[in-house]
């Protein structure tokens, strides 16, 4: 009998430390992403997931956790179509496992920051408007002839929520990005989750904002990249 998605998620749950920020981004897609837009392909000790997201309607997002390159190649062959482009999102230590199967480009290495609960201090900024999205996640805005700064949630799992922030170029330098991030972090904490923030190490403004709002670099790295699936490396031709 073909296993259900629920069965598959139960099977691969042991691959993750659900209290670890390092595992949180991959675990979100594997275990909690909308089941109607998720497909898992599993084997003992590993999985490949294919997910429809709002990031790109024409390129599914692919994530994985595998023991070795052979394990990854076999599961990728089940999950993907040769010659088709995908988005790749996985922990950096897993990236070498896909080299024989995928042509990877436009790699972005993202540092995973986690809010330091012990040092976090909220603040009051009367300019911040506290809102909620249709799915119930918080969204904080500062408006001045249009929305100038906004922070919200990209995804959330039972233990974590990854934040985003956008600041209009004309509004930079006013501290508004920090204000909306702190307000959003407070809302996430009140919901029982730990806020995460992903930033490229060479993005000085984003890294500075993370530190100023109370986030600390966990030392873990996540990869976001374009990928073309080439086929199983030992079955081509």
Strand residue percentage: 35-45%
Domain module tally: 2
Nearest-angstrom radius of gyration? 19 Å
- What CATH calls the topology of the largest domain is Aminopeptidase
- Give the rounded overall mean pLDDT: 94
Q: Kindly provide the name of the CATH class of the largest domain.
A: Alpha Beta
Major beta-sheet overview? 11 strands, mixed
Distance between the termini: 32 Å
The tally of beta strands, per DSSP, is 11
SSE ordering: HHEEEHEEEEEEHEHE
Taken from the alpha-carbon principal axes, the silhouette is elongated
Q: Provide the structure class.
A: alpha+beta
Helix content: 10-25%
Give start-end ranges of low-pLDDT stretches. none
Alpha plus pi helix count: 5
Oligomeric state as shown: single chain
CATH architecture grouping of the largest domain = 3-Layer(aba) Sandwich
In the sheet with the most strands, the strands line up as 1-2-3-4-11-5-10-9-8-7-6
Short characterization:
The chain has 5 helices and 11 strands, in the order ααβββαββββββαβαβ.
Description of the molecule:
With 237 residues, this protein is an alpha+beta fold. The protein folds into 2 domains: 5-110 and 222-229, Aminopeptidase (3-Layer(aba) Sandwich); 117-213, Gcn5-related N-acetyltransferase (GNAT) (Aminopeptidase). The protein contains 5 helices and 11 strands; from the N terminus they run ααβββαββββββαβαβ. Strands 1-2-3-4-11-5-10-9-8-7-6 form an 11-stranded mixed sheet, sandwiched between helices. The longest helix has 15 residues, at 176-190. It is elongated, with a radius of gyration of 19 Å. It starts with a helix and ends in an 8-residue tail after the last strand.
């Amino acid at each position: 009998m073909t296993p259900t998605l629920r069965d598959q998620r139960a099977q691969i749950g042991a691959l993750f430390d659900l209290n670890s920020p390092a595992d949180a981004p991959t675990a979100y897609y594997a275990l909690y992403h909308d089941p109607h837009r998720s497909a898992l392909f599993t084997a003992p000790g590993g999985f490949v997931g294919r997910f429809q997201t709002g990031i790109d309607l024409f390129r599914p997002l692919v994530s994985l956790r595998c023991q070795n390159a052979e394990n990854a190649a076999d599961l990728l062959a089940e999950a993907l179509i040769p010659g088709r482009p995908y988005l790749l999102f996985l922990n950096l230590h897993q990236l070498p496992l896909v080299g024989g199967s995928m042509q990877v480009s436009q790699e972005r290495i993202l540092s995973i920051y986690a809010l330091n609960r012990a040092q976090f201090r909220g603040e009051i900024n009367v300019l911040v408007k506290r809102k909620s999205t249709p799915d119930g996640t918080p969204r904080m805005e500062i408006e001045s002839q249009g929305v100038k700064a906004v922070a919200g949630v990209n995804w959330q799992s039972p233990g974590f929520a990854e934040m985003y922030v956008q600041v209009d170029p004309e509004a930079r330098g006013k501290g508004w990005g920090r204000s909306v991030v702190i307000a959003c972090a407070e809302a996430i904490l009140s919901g029982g989750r730990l806020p995460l923030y992903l930033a490229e190490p060479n993005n000085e403004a984003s890294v500075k904002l993370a530190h100023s709002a109370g986030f600390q670099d966990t030392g873990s790295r996540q990869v976001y990249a374009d990928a073309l699936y080439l086929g199983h490396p030992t079955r081509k031709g």
